Amino acid sequence: MTSSDLWDEDTAARYDDVSAEMFAPDVLDPAVDFLARLAGDGPALEFAIGTGRVAVPLTARGVRVSGIELSQPMVDRLRRKVSADEVPVAVGDMASTTVPGAFSLVYVVWNSIGNLRTQDEQVRCFQNAARHLAPGGRFVIELWVPGIRRFPPGQAGVPFAVTDQHVGFDTFDMVTQQGTSHHYRRLGDGSARYGFSNFRYIWPAECDLMARLAGLEFEQRVADWHGAAFTSDSESHVSVWRKPMEATDS
């Protein structure tokens, strides 16, 4: 059993529309550029591949991409874009599901590693990435930095989106590092739809320790896909760890 929320048919059907801003070229192209450079001539594996927001354009760049995805309805949406021959996907959780082959790149984007809601599963996710990497291959995650510094005493949540179409905020349990993202979206008829997703937040230093436990070496951390410097004020990070050339899988 996985602790992740399971995205159903209704959620999968709406995913591309409600996430439209993440498909915008100024958001997506730098991520694809970054990942394509790291993949080089080798194959890539995406954890939580979803509907193929990143995998489809990365495939168009000539990178051979495979995926792991927990939600069959999300995979069904992906199949409307590319075939199983073009982008093979195993249905399962990213902490334990395996696929054949050794990869030059394993990646998980847009905070998706937080869908694993226990520290043990997150550690196993790093180990699963290392298991799939060829020596010298890299594991990349894109992850936000929890906005806990913005909490005044007594505040229960932190907003991350406030527009006339979408209001979103996160609530946190500081003891367990559990959180919930709450979304209120305005529909065309003027009504509102509420949705939520649960996560466990991870600090950058905690990620580094998980990587070390998996036998990976830290390579770089930047604030975004453009390569901006990561500082104490950064609200997100793209982090890269490398599997040593001399590494062997047990």
From TrEMBL:
The keyword Hydrolase does not apply. Pfam families: Methyltransf_25 (PF13649). GO terms for biological process: methylation. It comes from the Bacteria. One of its GO terms (molecular function) is methyltransferase activity. Residues 45-137 form the Methyltransferase domain. The keyword Membrane does not apply. Keywords: Methyltransferase, Transferase. This is Methyltransferase. It comes from Catellatospora methionotrophica. The lineage of its organism: Bacteria, Bacillati, Actinomycetota, Actinomycetes, Micromonosporales.
